[in-house]
Amino acid sequence: MLKGIDPLLGPDLLRWLAEMGHGDVLCIADRNFPSYGRGQERVWQMNGVGAPQALAAVLTLFPVDTFVPEPLAHMLTDDGTDGPALADVRRVVDEAEGREVGARGVERVPHFYDEAARAYCTIRTSEVRPYSCYLLTKGTVA
Q1: Which of 82, 104, 108, 141 is the most buried (most CB within 10 A)?
Q2: 87 lies in a domain?
Q3: Active site (annotated) includes residue 111
Q4: Is 85 inside a domain boundary?
Q5: What is the number of domains present in the chain?
Q6: How confident is the model at residue 2 (pLDDT cuts 50, 70, 90)?
Q7: Which domain holds residue 70?
């Protein structure tokens, strides 16, 4: 038991976040994303919470990259538009960072799936809104 750490962040996830270095990518996925079937060995199941709440917990510890213009990537819908949770996610990320964090949309197939397969680890949420999958690049601690 530790004080000051969001209880959504369990021991394996804490270890993975600590192991990640500058430029490594974290995937935050909705409940429909094939997290286990994409070859990912490090998947943290975060039941009962959506993507914004999961990100809020992670961002209490995780520095977002400032060296790349768009450290937040989000899955686009199949018709190329932003997913329904993106505004909520951007608000959480921007607030946690105290700045507007650049974001880019990525086509679901094959590009987002390919990028997510290379992520250091994945958090699979219970997010019900479709296309609520994100990639976040880790930065440095000054």
Answers
A1: 108
A2: yes
A3: no
A4: yes
A5: 1
A6: confident
A7: 22-137
Q: Which residue has the tokens 């394996």?
A: 12
Given 6, 94, 113, 120, the catalytic residue: 113
In the residue annotation, 113 being an active-site residue is answered as yes
Q: Token pair of 136, please?
A: 């976040």
- Interval 84-97: pLDDT, tens: 999 999 999 999 99
5 belongs to a structural domain = no
- At residue 37 the predicted structure's pLDDT band, cuts being 50, 70 and 90, is confident
What digits encode the pLDDT tens for the residues 107-122? 999 999 999 999 999 9
* CATH code of the domain in which 109 resides: 3.40.1650.10
Any catalytic annotation for residue 12? no
Q: Which amino acid is residue 117, in one-letter code?
A: A
Give domain status of residue 13, yes or no: no
Cis peptide before 110 (omega within 30 of 0): yes
Print burial letters for 66-105: b (CB count within 10 Å at least 16), e (below 16).
eeeeebbbbbbeeeeeebebbebbbebbeebbeeebebeb
Catalytic residue among 22, 36, 78, 114: 22
